[in-house]
Amino acid sequence: MKKAVNQLIFAAGLLALWEGLALAKLWPPYVFPTPRGVAESLWGGFADHSFWIGIGVSMRRVLIGYAISVVLGVVLGILISSSRFLEDTLGRLVLSLQSLPSVSWLPMAVLWFGLTEKAIVFVIVSGSLLAMTQNTKAGFDNVPRILSMAGRNLGARGLQLFRYVLLPASLPYLVDGLRQGWAFAWRSLISGEMIFVTVGLGQLLMLGRDLNDINQVFAVMVLIAVIGYLVDGILFRKIEATVRHKWGLATAASR
Questions:
Q1: C-alpha angle 214/215/218, rounded to 5°?
Q2: I want to staple 69 with a disulfide (CB 3.0 to 4.6 A). Which of 89, 128, 168, 184 is the partner?
Q3: Contact 166, 144 (CB under 8 A)
Q4: Does any domain span residue 89?
Q5: Which structural domain, as residue segments, surrounds residue 135?
Q6: Which residues lie below 8 Å from residue 100, measured CB to CB, with a gap of 6+?
Q7: Looking at the domain assignment, is residue 104 inside a domain?
Q8: Which stretches of the chain drop beneath a pLDDT of 50?
Q9: What is the pTM of this model?
């Protein structure tokens, strides 16, 4: 309850500061909009269904790219963790490529796939895959050896050892990987949609810029931030709390 009150107070203060800066007219109205102008743009975008369509198309793209990243990332992470050769070669490559921002993959995506849906999905996978791979590897690398030894002493081998010992022990890292992978995928999606005119939130953002409509630019930015926050807050935090409680990893504060 106290957390919700603090968040409401912070949001109200942020809106008041925004309104105050707009009323002070430090910048022209076409550069810095008022909260009311942005709210009207949001209402208009939902009323004419352009925002609903943009959200639906963007979510479909990001879910496809994110699903591919999760599957490939988990497989690659397990392989790298289980092989010294792969850790010294592929693992080093994954670590070095993480320093590349997702926008760096845009030229390659266009050259390989053209101005198509595949180019956007490629950018999403490129931005999300590495984080998922690295966290999966870290999860399996940090499983205490005593757990593996105990599992083997109890007769667990192969898939049984993986399912009942290694996987549960690495779940906190896997959940962190899912959260980070989603964040990277969501940011990469917007970058990908801005490279050419196509339906989606990125296109609506660029349309606002082309029309010199700062209210729409801010409105789409608010939508992007709110969707990212809701997915993280409602889905991934719930998964994280469930995993930590189920496997006895919850802190005293979270209990």
A1: 85
A2: 128
A3: no
A4: yes
A5: 56-246
A6: none
A7: yes
A8: 250-255
A9: 0.80
Q: Residue 57: count other Cβ atoms within 10 Å of its Cβ.
A: 18
Tell me if residue 250 falls in helix, strand or coil: coil
CATH classification of the domain holding 148? 1.10.3720.10
Residues 192-218 as b/e (b if ≥16 CB within 10 A, e otherwise) read: bbbbeebebbbbbbbbbeeeebbbbbb
Q: How many residues does the chain have?
A: 255
Is residue 222, in this structure, part of any structural domain at all? yes
Reading the block at residue 241, the tokens are 């709390």
Structural domains of the chain, count: 1
All residues at 6 or more sequence positions from 195 whose CB lies less than 8 Å from its CB, including other chains:
106, 109, 110, 115, 119, 120
Residue 14 located in a structural domain: no
Phi-psi domain of 152 (left: phi exceeds 0; alpha: psi -120 through 50; beta: other): alpha
Two structure tokens written together for 20: 């105050």
Please tell me the predicted confidence (pLDDT) of residue 64.
Answer: 92
Which CB contacts under 8 angstroms, 24+ apart, belong to 106-113?
Answer: 106/191, 106/192, 106/195, 109/192, 109/195, 110/195
Residue 206 tokens, joined: 């660029």
Q: Assign residue 197 a region: left if phi > 0, alpha if psi is -120 to 50, beta otherwise?
A: beta
Per the CB < 8 A criterion, the answer to whether 34 and 22 are in contact is yes
| Helices 117-141 and 167-193: angle between axes, nearest 10 degrees | 160
- Integer Rg of the chain from CA: 22
- d(CA 37, CA 141) in angstroms, rounded, equals 51
